[in-house]
């Protein structure tokens, strides 16, 4: 499933803000520069590094590229603040998948 969403900061999984969609299902959650089909150019999201700090409505300082009806998830990425923007229902889906991936990572036996 491809959901329209974007990370507002440049990260190793979203270099230069290239991602316009998050793909969930059929593999690990990933950022893509397209709405499908397939995972071409997808960059896996390191869910094990992300912690949700807050979910809120869009504010003026979030930038003009974020639709006013969207919400923002404020995340901690191994000590760095990262914002993820999406429509409210899509953001809930994405957060659930990221949290499940994080839990699965921590539950798996280490090397």
Can you tag this structure with a few keywords?
single chain; alpha+beta; 18% helix
Give an overview in words:
This protein is of the alpha+beta class and 111 residues long. The chain has one helix and seven strands. Strands 4-3-2-1-7-6-5 form a seven-stranded antiparallel sheet, covered by helices on one side. It starts with a strand and ends with a helix. The model has no long low-confidence stretch (mean pLDDT 91).
Blueprint of the fold:
Blueprint lengths: L1 E6 L13 E3 L6 E3 L10 E2 L5 E8 L13 E7 L2 E7 L1 H20 L4
Antiparallel strand pairs: 1-2, 1-7, 2-3, 3-4, 5-6, 6-7
Instruction: Decide which structural class fits the backbone.
Output: alpha+beta
Gyration radius, to the nearest Å? 13 Å
Count of helix runs:
1
Instruction: Give the low-pLDDT segments.
Output: none
Mean pLDDT comes to 91
How much helix, percentage-wise, in residues?
10-25%
What about the largest sheet?
7 strands, antiparallel
Strand content: 25-35%
In one word, what is the shape? globular
> SSE order, as H and E?
EEEEEEEH
Whole-Å distance between the termini?
A: 31 Å
How are the strands of the largest sheet arranged? 4-3-2-1-7-6-5
Please report the total strand number as a whole number. 7
Oligomer: single chain
Please outline what is shown here:
The protein is of the alpha+beta class and 111 residues long. It has one helix at residues 88-107; strands spanning 2-7, 21-23, 30-32, 43-44, 50-57, 71-77, 80-86.
